[in-house]
Amino acid sequence: LPRSSNTSNYVGGPSVFLKYPAEVALQIYQRIVSPTKGRNCPMIPSCSVYSQQVIRYFGLPKGLMMTADRLHRCGHDMHLYRQTIRDGSIRFQDSAVASEEWGSIK
To answer: What percent of the chain has pLDDT over 90?
Structure first.
């Protein structure tokens, strides 16, 4: 079973079989629901992309907890996040893991 680059984060076990339905649900959201809402998420990565990344990297249980936390924080206390400009709009950077680790999970 796969392990993340950080050996303390084991991503195998029963949750590896439950990750697939979660990823399919996120893909359906991204392809069907998100386009109707428009690109209005103030965060980078968007909440759905963030969710995909943390579920892949940390596994389903921790990934779902991190996703719930992110959804609760989205759009609040924006002064706490680094600002960046993406597609002509100001967005706020909120990554779950250090930037050098993101390359291995995309």
So the answer is: 9
Residue 4's pLDDT is what? 46
Alpha-carbon gap, residue 26 to 97, rounded angstroms: 20
Please give the full DSSP string across the chain, using - where no structure is assigned.
--B-SSTT-B--STHHHHHHHHHHHHHHIIIIIHHHH-S---EES-HHHHHHHHHHHH-HHHHHHHHHHHHHHTTS-GGGSEEEEETTEEEEE--SS-HHHHTTT-
Residue 55 has pLDDT above 70, yes or no: yes
What length is written for the chain? 106
Q: What is the pTM of this model?
A: 0.69
Q: What are phi and psi of 86, to 5 degrees?
A: -135, 125
